[in-house]
Amino acid sequence: VGDKHGEGGAYGNLGNAYHSLGDFKKAIEYHNLHLKIAKEVGDKHGEGRAYGNLGIAYDSLGDFKKAKEYHNLDLKIAKEVGDKHGEGNAYGNLGNAYHSLSDSKKAIEYHNLNLKIAKEVGDKHGEGRAYGNLGNAYHFLGDFKKAIEYHNLHLEIAKEIGDKHGEGDKSLEAIAYCSLGRVSELQGRLPKAVEHYQASISLFNSLRVLLKSKDEWKVNFRNQHQMAYTGLWRVLVEQGNVDEALFVAEKGRAQALTDLMESSFRGGTSHHKREDEDCAVLKNVPSNTVFQAVDEANVNLWVVSEGKQVQLRQSKLKGFVSENSGSSQSFESFMLGVYTQLGVRSNVRCENRSLDALREGRSKVDEKTKEANPQPHFQQDGCLSSLYDIVMKPVADLIQGDELLIIPDGSLWIAPYAALKDGNSKYLCESFTIRVVPSLASLRLIADCPDDYHKSSDALLVGDPWVSEVTNSDGEKVLEQLPCAKEEVEMIGEILNITPITGRKATKREVLKRLSSVSLVHFAAHGCPETGEIALTPDLDRISTVPTEKEDYILTIRDVLNVQLRAKLVVLSCCHSGRGEIKAEGVVGIARAFMGAGARSVVVSLWAIDDEATLEFMKCFYQHLAEGKSTSKSLNLAMKSLRESDEFHDIKYWAPFMLIGDDLTFDLMAKERENLNRKSNK
């Protein structure tokens, strides 16, 4: 209808919605669209709101200086147009920016201005937020008495608002309880801290139920409310409640993925309430299971095995400085140092199998975020040994046998466990077969799945779909053909005696038709690490000369869920398939997508390697798999083969491959034998 004002407002509302769900980059995209239209139509109120929302989004991304710039622009406009409500919000947002920049006194000054205006205009939401922000500022200054005073005022208003407006406003109350929990913890009042953290978690979980089947929303919602779970298990550890702390850490782990897996394996129905599963979740846990939980620089390592006492060991990232002290070396930056040492961030001779060219609006935000968060300089020698000392050495005496199961946390999801070196300079994969799982609950779901749920034979090999006609919004061709991917699946097909589908035959329709009837799936194609999307051949029967709808050729996780994936193993030879966005949920990416869709296990790569190395690795892996060896054993033997070769002995060639989920053997020739028997009987 040509309502530009309404269009701008809608963009702003979409930005706020994405921000509430933790997708700050998407929020920035929409707030910029709102800002553009507001300027075009001369909507000063809208322009101010857009500036304020952009400031909040950049603050959430850690670009505090950029956030301050936008909040000052918002404040300027609010004063110009006499918008007292907007002026108060701008003061509060500026207070948060100064708090993030460690200037707590300036932050308190602005939060008091926000509080004054909120009271004047009767803005209860604003008043509550101001109290909460003042509590945070005094907490930072070490004035815990004053911090508790303000957090209690915040809680009082949050309860009042929640009572009036229902469950949707309970998040303010949950945040207030979490803040009170943290201050009580720092005061040494641990029972009170437990009480507050539990109240916060209970409220967050009641809100989470409202998200129903919206996986992406659940992931981002969980990411925003990690502090309550972390705080609770941290206090329980301090109290000596080792088992209970593990159960809390586990309950907060991979919640959205567990929902997806329950839906896939159990048809959406849970046989037992999760709150009653504390002890049951340890049932049938394999020996040598190491559960990780990270809190700033501290790593907690629970060693779990059925019939044995749970044992906790702890370690610390050296050189870490907490956020409140200024600069910090996070586990994410530490892992970047490990990758740098391995040389895996440099250019390699391989095809670009990512979908980045189709993801418009991503690069600019990413570039700005990188500028705002410069990476630290690393002393690179010994990163692998240091990582071993952090995640394995403390529990080495508790590990028996030759199998290792790891439940990683945060950035430790992208650790190259196979390449970690012990005190004798021996790689971890030389001592153990290694696999990872997202949580104990997901491990149990896999173990409890009926034997006949997953297919026992046949394979689907997809390589080098015909994507030359795929274009972006400007009509430019953006995806290149992948001849090495074609060679890869043809080589695997020869080993398994199965004809792969490649080129024009690899349509989305054909892949979906076959996906639910095979035991093994191998994709060598363009993929998106974050969303799990894979580019296939556009529908050959389409009317237009170029594919115009992504639904026509992009395989999404929703597509896979709808056809009920029954594969025991999915091998993802697309992009850096083990990578993705690191959130409280874990690594949110393509591997998680297939686990959620029903795959029993997934093999991924943490970084790109040379095409020739990939071919050699896959050849060795599938030869051992076809011989009846387990997935983990086949991976280890393939790594060993490359490690002992002249050309690919370097760690960067053999160490990126990782098994997620179950460890299985395959009878890939069963269907062929069945056909031969039929022919002989005839």
From TrEMBL:
UniProt TPR repeat ranges: 8-41, 128-161
Subcellular location field: Cytoplasm
Top-level taxon in the UniProt lineage: Eukaryota
GO molecular function: G-protein alpha-subunit binding; GDP-dissociation inhibitor activity
Gene3D superfamilies reported for this sequence: Tetratricopeptide repeat domain
GO CC terms, sorted: cell cortex
GO process terms (BP): establishment of mitotic spindle orientation
Predominant localisation class: cytoplasm
UniProt keyword Cytoplasm, yes or no: yes
Record SUPFAM superfamilies: TPR-like
Stored Pfam families: CHAT, TPR_12
The UniProt record lists the keyword Repeat: yes
Keywords: Cytoplasm, Repeat, TPR repeat
Stretches assigned to the CHAT domain: 383-662
InterPro entries: CHAT_dom, GPSM, TPR-like_helical_dom_sf, TPR_rpt
Name of the molecule in the record: CHAT domain-containing protein
